[in-house]
Amino acid sequence: TGFDSDNSSGDFSEANHKAAEMLDLDPHQSSRTGKHNGETEIQENGIKRHRTSLPAPMFSRSDFSVWSILKKCIGLELSKITMPIVFNEPLSFLQRITEYMEHIYLINKACSQADPLERMQAVAAFAVSAVASQWERTGKPFNPLLGETYELTREDLGFRFISEQVSHHPPISAFYSEGLNKDFVFHGSIYPKLKFWGKSIEAEPRGTITLELLKHNEAYTWTNPTCCVHNVIIGKLWLEQYGTVEIVNHSTGDKCVLNFKPCGLFGKELHKVEGYIQDKNKKKLCVIYGKWTECLWCTDPTTYEAYKKNEKRGGEQKKTKQSEDVIKSENDEADDMPEVQDTVQFIPGSKLLWRINCRPPNSSQMYNFTSFAVSLNELEEGMEAILAPTDCRLRPDIRNMEDGNM
C-alpha cells in the first residue's frame, strides 16, 4: 500500500489504477460502489474498493468571459465576492483539506523511525506532499458554509479525519485527524486569504498545521506556502507555489526550512523546492531538494555544496545542452506557462524521501483529480442515514456539478 517504501508508493498506485480500470467496466456506475443489498463492495484482498471516476466529465471553461466578473475585483479580498460556478471544482474546501492525507504513509514512516533526523525528513516530505495534489488543479473548491462538516474514515490507509467550517467572516476551516492505531494526531486551522492581481489569483493559506507523533512525544508545526493561479484572464491557466515553510520540532528544537521557489523571469526555478534541516544549535544536518510536483531528495550538506561548486565551474559539460533546453518561454503578453522538463537533477548519493503518486489516465477530464480526490465526494448506499446532515457530500450544488448539471 505504499507504507513499506518510498519507491512503492508511485509504482503501486499506477498498478492500482490499472486494476481498478479492469474492475470498473462502467465508470458512469462508479458513483455507487455498494452492492444491491446495501453492503460495501469488498475486493479479494479485503479492502473496500472506492470509485475510480466521476459521474460526468469536466465542462469546458472556454466559452465563459472571466474578465466580465473579475474586472471589479482587482486588489480585493475574494472571500466576500460571489464567484461564478465556472471557477469551481466539485469539492468543498473541507474535502480539499482532506487531501493532505493522501500520502499518509509518510506519517507512518515518521512514526516508525528511531532517529529524529529521519523523522524530520519524513515529516518534511509529508508537508511537501500535502500541496502536491494541487498540481494542475486550477479550479476553486466550493466555499464551506458555516457549520459545514466533512468526516472520512479510511481503514485501508489507517486514519480517521474530520473538518468543520468554524467561522464565516473571516472564513476559517478547522480539521483533526488521528491514526487508527493511536500513533499520531494531525490537526490545525486554515484561513485562506485570496486576492486578485489582474492576471493572477493568489491564495495565502494562513493558519498553523500541527503533527504530533505520540510514540515519540513530538509535535511539529508549519504553515503551507502561498499558491498562485496565473492567466485567469487569457492564456493557459497554470499554478505555482512559493514562499518559505518552516517545520519546527518543538521537542528537540530541530528545524526544517523549505524554500518553494517562485517561477522567475524565465521559469528556471518553477516548482523547485530547496532547503535544509538544522539542529537546535543551527548546525545543518542535511539538505533537501526536488520539486513539489514530482519528488523530494535529501543529501549530505558537504556533498550538496561540492556538487553546486562543480556545477558553477561548468564541470558537467554533458548536461549543458540539457540545461539550456529546460526552458522554452514564449515571453508574450499572455504570460503562458513556462515549459519545463519534469525531472529533478539527481545528486549522486541522495536518498529519495517522496515521489508523487501517478494520476488516473482520465484525470484531465476529472478536474485533474488524483485517485484519492475522486473518492472524497463518493456517496455510497446507506451513507445518508449515518452522515451528519452538515456533511459536504449532501450539498446539492456540489452534487449537481459533479453530475454535470451546471
Automatic annotation (TrEMBL):
A Gene Ontology biological process in which this protein takes part is: lipid transport
- GO MF annotation list: cholesterol binding
What GO CC terms are in its UniProt record?
cytosol; perinuclear endoplasmic reticulum; plasma membrane
Q: Which domain of life is it from?
A: Eukaryota
For this chain, the family text in UniProt reads:
Belongs to the OSBP family.
Keyword Transport listed? The answer is yes
Q: Protein name, please?
A: Oxysterol-binding protein
Keyword Transport carried by entry: yes
Keywords of this entry: Lipid transport, Lipid-binding, Transport
Name of a matching Pfam family = Oxysterol_BP
Give the span(s) annotated as Disordered.
Answer: 311-335
Task: Return the Basic and acidic residues bias intervals.
Answer: 311-331
Which Gene3D superfamilies does the record cross-reference, listed alphabetically? 2.40.160.120
